[in-house]
C-alpha cells in the first residue's frame, strides 16, 4: 500500500485512525491494537465497573501518535482516582435503587406510534417532517359532518405489538370517547379503548442485560394494550398564543399499561427500553423515544417495607421522553413521597410533571382537579373484530424476539452479553444482520478452502466457530464503529449491507484469523474499503499486489529482540518490578502487566523487524523470558540488563 493511500486516510471523517505514513503507522497501530486487545481481555476478567468507562474511552480514541501512548497502568490508575472522585460527588446508580425501610411500586403507561401509513380513523398519513397542517383529513380537524373510518391496516402493527408483549388479543374490542377540552384535541374528546381494549394480560421479562442491577429476573405484567388517537402538536408562542399543528392529530397509537410491579427506578427504565426494543423488533413501532415516537407516564407509590394491605397512593408523572428521564423521575418522586410520609404527612393522589435535567417533579393538578373524562362508547364506530387467523398468521411470521436473538448470540455464537446487546441495538437492528452476512461469508471462505479437496464427505473443519464469531462481532461493532462517529456514513441497509461489503470484511477477518495478515494490515484494509481506495471485491488482490501477507519472525528472533530490549540500561527499574513479583511470598503483589506491556512496546519498536512481529507473540516470548531468563539472572545477582546479552537462549 503506497504513501498516497495513507495520505487519503488522513482526510477521512474517522474517529479512530489518523494515519501519518506507513512507517509510523506500522508500529503505532499494531502496538495500539494490541494494547486495546490486551486491555479488553483483562477488563473482562478482572476490572471493576467504575474503571470500565475509562478503558472504553481508551479503546475508542486510539489515535496513534509518534510518541508512545500513555502506559495502560497509568490510565487505569487515573481512572481509579477519577471514579473515586465521581463517587463522592454523586451517589452510585446502585445506591439510588432502594431506600431502606420503604417499598416502591411503579406502573407505567407507554404511548407508542404504530408503524402504519395511515391515521387511526382517516387515510391521511402523518409525517414528522411534513410542513405543519399538511397531513390533515377533515375528520382529523373535527370538521362538522366528518366521520371516523377505521383503517384496517392499523390492526397489523397493533396486533404485532400485542403479540410482542405476549398479550391475548381479544376477539372483539371497542372504541370509547374520552372527553377533555384542550387545544391539542380538536373534537373535544380522544377516541381510545377504555371498556374493551384490543389485548390483555401480557408480560415483559427483564434481566441484567436489559438494565436490571443484579442477577434477578423480573416479570412485569401487562394489564392491557389499547389503540387510540394521538393529539395535535402545540408550540407555545409569546403572549399566551399556541400554534397548533394537526399533522399528528389522530395518528394511530397503542397505549400499553403495565401492572404496578416494578420495584426500582432501574427496572422502570429497563421496562421502557425493553418495550421499545420489543415493539421495534416486531416492526410494530419503528420510531424510538429519542425521535418522539414513544412517550411514557410513570405511576409511583411507596409503602413502609413489609407492610400488608394495598399499595400506597399513586402519583402519576406525565410525558417522559427518555429512559433517563424515566429513571430520574421515579427516583425524585419516590424520595419526595418518602419525605412527605416521614414528615407525618399524607401523599396526595395527583398528576405531576418532570423537566429534563431536573431534580424534582412538579405538581400539575391534584385529584380534585382531575378531569372527569365521561368515557362513553363511540356511537360512530362499530366493534373491531379480529379474526383469529390473522393473529395466528402474524404470530407465525413474527420471527425471533429480542430475547431469543440475544440468547442465540450469547449461547450459540459465544458473544459476550454486552456485545450481543449492542449488536442488536445498532442501526435500527440492521447491524446484526450485517454480522450474520459476515458470518455467512466467513463460512463460505472457510468451507471453500476445504472444498478444494473435492472429497464427497468432508468432516467439519477443526475450527472454533465461537472464536471466529467473536472476532467477527468485534469487527462489526468496534472496528466498524471506529471508522466514523457518524454511523449514517456507513449507510447500513435493512438487509445488512453497507459501504464496507460484508464479503470483503469477511475476507479480512478470515485472513486475520488465519494469521495470514497482521492486525495492522487488517485495519488498513478496512480503511481502504471505507474510503473507496480499495474497490469492493479487491481485498485479496490488494494484499497480493502490495505484498501485505504476514511473514512472522521465528521464536528465536523474538527472543533476540527481547534480549536487546532488556540489555538497555534504562529498563532496570522496570525489570526490578518482576523480580519483586517473583520474590514475594503470599502472592499479594499483582503481576506487573503494565510493565510487561511497556517492554513489549519497546520490542515492537525495534526497527526493521517490527513489520514481521505480532504483538501477541512478542508478549508471550517476553513473559516467558522474564520468568525463565531475566529474573533468575537477577536473582543470581547478575543484574537485569546493561551488560549487553549476546546470543538468545532458546525459548
Ligand atoms: N398504587 C399504585 N402505585 C403505582 N402505580 C400504580 C398504582 N395503582 C395503579 N398504578 C399504575 O397506574 C397506571 C394506571 O394507568 P391507566 O391508564 O389504567 O389509568 P390512568 O392513569 O388513570 O389513565 P390515563 O392517564 O391514561 O388517563 C397503571 O400502569 C397501573 O399499574
Ligand atoms: Mg392510561
Ligand atoms: Mg395515566
Automatic annotation (TrEMBL):
HAMAP family: GatB. Allows the formation of correctly charged Gln-tRNA(Gln) through the transamidation of misacylated Glu-tRNA(Gln) in the mitochondria. The reaction takes place in the presence of glutamine and ATP through an activated gamma-phospho-Glu-tRNA(Gln). Residues 38-90 are annotated as: Disordered. Subunit of the heterotrimeric GatCAB amidotransferase (AdT) complex, composed of A, B and C subunits. Its main location: mitochondrion. GO terms for biological process: glutaminyl-tRNAGln biosynthesis via transamidation; mitochondrial translation. It catalyses: L-glutamyl-tRNA(Gln) + L-glutamine + ATP + H2O = L-glutaminyl-tRNA(Gln) + L-glutamate + ADP + phosphate + H(+). Keywords: ATP-binding, Ligase, Mitochondrion, Nucleotide-binding, Protein biosynthesis. PANTHER family: GLUTAMYL-TRNA GLN AMIDOTRANSFERASE SUBUNIT B MITOCHONDRIAL AND PROKARYOTIC PET112-RELATED, GLUTAMYL-TRNA(GLN) AMIDOTRANSFERASE SUBUNIT B, MITOCHONDRIAL. GO terms for cellular component: glutamyl-tRNA(Gln) amidotransferase complex; mitochondrion. It is found in: Mitochondrion. It comes from the Eukaryota. PROSITE patterns: GATB (PS01234). Residues 105-391 form the Aspartyl/Glutamyl-tRNA(Gln) amidotransferase subunit B/E catalytic domain. One of its GO terms (molecular function) is glutaminyl-tRNA synthase (glutamine-hydrolyzing) activity. Pfam families: GatB_N. This is Glutamyl-tRNA(Gln) amidotransferase subunit B, mitochondrial. Its EC number is 6.3.5.-. Belongs to the GatB/GatE family. GatB subfamily. It is an enzyme of class 6 (ligase). NCBIfam families: PRK05477.1-2 (NF004012). Signal peptide: none annotated.
